[in-house]
Amino acid sequence: MTSPRPAQVLLALMCAVLALIVLGCANQTATPSSPTSGTSTMPVSPSSSAAGEPSAGTPPEPADTDLTIVINDGSGSTTTWRLTCNPAGGTHPGPLAACRALEANGAAALPPVPKDKGCTQIYGGPETATVTGTWKGQRVMSRFARNDGCQISRWKLMAGLLPPGGN
């Protein structure tokens, strides 16, 4: 039996690395993640279900969402929006879409990423955003970025609330 040539070994190694990257990316898209450490938010109300819908027997959410969203495009230029929900309003350019994004994905995207969560090291762009205020009666202070797979996933979950990003 002949030993493998260096080119075959290199090809096998590259295939193994590619498989690990694909599996890591699949994990990032299959599991919603949250802000990286150093970001904080208050927990979601226990009276809400995982889908963000009120539990049986609880009244509908009152108009208690009042958020300030500050977007930094990465060059130092910032844009600030205010958003209210129920009814949707404020200075956000798409308040209805923003409120829908929060309703669908806020519980998954606003809390911090667990410190022990592995995130792919993929750079998605220099944009950052902060979301502060009140969401469903809970104080929120959350930071978004696009500096790794977890952050890119969170940003995508908040499509409608946050603008499209990336270089």
Describe this structure in words.
- The protein is an alpha+beta fold.
- Helices cover 29% and strands 20% of the residues.
- It has three helices and five strands.
- It has helices at residues 6-30, 95-109, 149-157, and strands at 65-72, 78-85, 89-90, 128-135, 138-145.
- It has a five-stranded antiparallel sheet, with helices on one face.
- A hairpin with a 5-residue loop joins strand 1 (65-72) and strand 2.
- The radius of gyration is 20 Å and the shape is elongated.
- Give the C-alpha Rg: 20 Å
Class per helix and strand makeup: alpha+beta
For the biggest β-sheet, the strand order reads 3-2-1-4-5
What percent of the residues sit in helical stretches (DSSP H or I)? 25-40%
Quaternary structure state of the chains depicted: single chain
Give the beta-strand count: 5
Shape: elongated
Percentage of residues in DSSP E strands = 15-25%
Q: What is the CA-CA span between the terminal residues?
A: 49 Å
Element pattern in H and E: HEEEHEEH
Average pLDDT reading:
74
Q: Identify low-pLDDT runs.
A: 25-61
Number of helices: 3
Largest sheet: 5 strands, antiparallel
Summarize the SSE layout with pairings.
Elements: H1 6-30, E1 65-72, E2 78-85, E3 89-90, H2 95-109, E4 128-135, E5 138-145, H3 149-157
Antiparallel strand pairs: 1-2, 1-4, 2-3, 4-5
